[in-house]
Design brief:
The protein is an alpha+beta fold. Helix content is about 15%, strand content about 30%. The chain is built from two helices and eleven strands. Helix 1 packs across helix 2 (about 15-35). The protein is elongated and about 70 Å long. The relative contact order is 0.12.
Length: about 210
């Protein structure tokens, strides 16, 4: 569908007056988006682990190029924060108060981890993370993250029978496993088809 066909459909369903009202907003939106600086191509890994220490409800780890905080909000709920960089807005946690959690920092000389009585997070020398339950079952495994600009990219290995749902409005099947999706809200311009991405509502939760 070309631009003229899209405009004709818009006028038919919304009317010319309403279409004209949207033009100033579209110009303003495009100007704002162009002002956003591009993400640098330089990728920075955390580097080697330099030091670590126990803190209330968790532990802090210092790497050559990064800092990591592992904070237990509850015994079975952990928040992992990598810095430097812009911290994400905690939509899912806003307005919630958590009681302190009893945690232990384990350093055997070979492995390093911080645990509650039901969950243990292992921290590798390069920043990779593994999450295990109290029975030793692997729940999640993450490679060392990569920093680009003010953001961090995380990679985790999914299980063969694992299904992935969420991420807001997407033009794919409900199970998103195997797909690639961008967290950005964008007006598709009146019409979209299966596989178009991103759309109106991108939600970084799954």
């Amino acid at each position: 569908m070309n631009l003229i066909e899209q405009l004709a459909i818009g006028i038919r369903f919304l009317g010319l007056e309403r279409i004209l009202q949207h033009i100033p907003y579209a110009i303003y939106r495009d100007r704002i988006e162009k002002a956003i600086p591009p993400v640098p191509d330089t990728e920075i890994k955390p580097g080697k682990l330099v030091s670590h220490k126990a803190v209330p409800s968790g532990a802090e780890f210092v790497f050559e190029n990064a800092q990591l905080e592992v904070h237990f909000l509850k015994a079975d709920l952990v928040r992992v924060t990598w810095t430097p960089g812009a911290l994400p807005i905690p939509y899912a946690l806003a307005g919630t108060t958590y009681e302190p959690v009893q945690t232990i920092l384990h350093d055997t000389g070979m492995t390093l981890s911080v645990s509650s009585d039901v969950l243990e997070v292992f921290v590798a020398e390069d920043g990779g993370l593994r999450y295990l339950d109290k029975s030793g079952n692997l729940l999640r495994s993450e490679s060392a993250p990569t920093r680009k600009g003010n953001g961090w990219a995380l990679e985790s290995r999914s299980f063969a029978d694992e299904l992935i749902y969420g991420m807001g409005e997407r033009t794919s099947s409900l199970n998103l496993k195997g797909g690639s999706f961008r967290n950005w809200n964008k007006d598709p311009g009146g019409a979209y088809k299966r596989g178009d991405d991103p759309l109106y509502i991108g939600i970084p939760l799954y």
